Structures are given as C-alpha cells and as structure tokens.
Amino acid sequence: MPNAESRPEILYDHQLESTLASVDASEEIAKTLASQLGFDEEQTYHIGYAVREAVVNAVVHGNLYNANKRVRLLVERAAPWLQVTVEDEGMGFEEGRQADPLAVENLLSQSGRGILIIRAFMDEVSIGRTAGGGTRIVMRKSLPPPA
Amino acid sequence: MNLKLTTRQVGDVTVVDAAGRITLGEGSSTFRDTIKSLVNQGQKKILVNLGEVTYIDSSGIGELVSGYTTVSNAGGKLKLLNLTKRVHDLLQITKLYTVFDVFDEEAKALASF
Questions:
Q1: All domains of chain B, ordered by start, with CATH?
Q2: B39 touches B76 (CB < 8 A)
C-alpha cells in the first residue's frame, strides 16, 4: 500500500475556455506552482513553456477555439514528479502521423514544433486519448530536492 | 510585455529591433505584418534584432521561419542578431540554427549582406 507521500496532491484542476486568454493563464499558473515547489528560474520557464504549448495545441488544434469545448488543466505533485495533464475535447492526436519537424524538408514549415520543444523541456511526456476521444498529454518534471 | 517592433535603416539594410514576447496571437501577427510590409516596400536586406525579446513560443518561431521564407522568396535575405540564451536554445532544439544566419555584433551582421 503506498504511503501518504506517494499519493498525488492536486494543486490545480480546472476546465478552461478555448481561448488565447486561457493559454496565457495556464502558463502563469504553471510557473507560479513550479516556483512554489522550489524549481529554479530556468526550470520554471521550461515548465511554463511546455504547459503553454500543450494548451495552445488543445485550444487551437484540439478544440478549434470552439466556445462550447473546454481544456482541462490538471497540475499534481506526484513525487518524485510535478505532473501536468492537459486534455481537450477534440478529435485526438496521433503523434506518429505528424511530420518530423527536424527533417530537412520540414525545417521551413511554419508549424509543428510544439511537441518537440515540450519533450526537450520536460523529463517525461506521454500523449494519448481521453475517454471522449480528445487528446491527453501528460508531462512530468522531476521535483527539486527539498531545500 | 507585448511585442514592440521598431525599424531603422542602416545603409541598404533594414534593422527591425524587436522587444517583448513573440507568441501566438498579437505578437506573431505583428511580426508577420511588419516583415510583409517591408518586403512589399522592396526591402530585401532585413536584420531582425532579437536582443530585447524575452520569449518566443513555437508560433513565434514559426513566424521567424515564415519571415525568412517570405524575404527569401522575394530575392532577399533575413538574418538574426543578438539572440538571448533562451532563443538560442530554441533554435538549437528546432535545428533552425542551420537555417538562419545569426550574429552577435550588428556591424558584422550589416557587413554580411
């Protein structure tokens, strides 16, 4: 049986509107929580950046700015991780079907780099489907050691 | 801070001094509109100074690439000046360091056109 410390602690769990304002808000929420957990300035920037990109994908590509659809932002302290989950109500996303943004023929593409940067900035990233068929991205970053 | 763009002419090179955030929405569209306007005016040597840019998201990176393509297709060149460490890191992650000509000194950048 897991001890109390291993149980995830929910730090934030809200359904956000599919707007650019939600993108900005999500980045700020993630940065604030990361800072409170003791991440340094660079790590906090990376976490905020990854969350911003994930929520952009959810708002723009998942929910297509649909005012009737929501983006779930869930932030948990799940030792040894900070775990952030972003879910949308879109049609789902298959990473393997996306063009490789690092391929020479794709370097001049205007889009398609978000997931690449998320993977560079976070320690673990998994992408799957919600029960409703939307996209769920789970991003983890190792918690800093206790001060 | 929203994106602020200021253009100045140094010889036949147009320098675009950028400050703030280039992100999805207003920042990206401001950058795109400015580059297109310069190209439409016949400017073919464009140096984008990113020294005061505090943040670029993937959409903003896409606008840098789009600007590069727009200027190149018009027969010109778009180069980058004064990258912060964070922007430098993003260009490395995305391999765009292999695409852009990047400079740390304005004089050298101007002389390279």
A1: 4-111 (3.30.750.24)
A2: yes
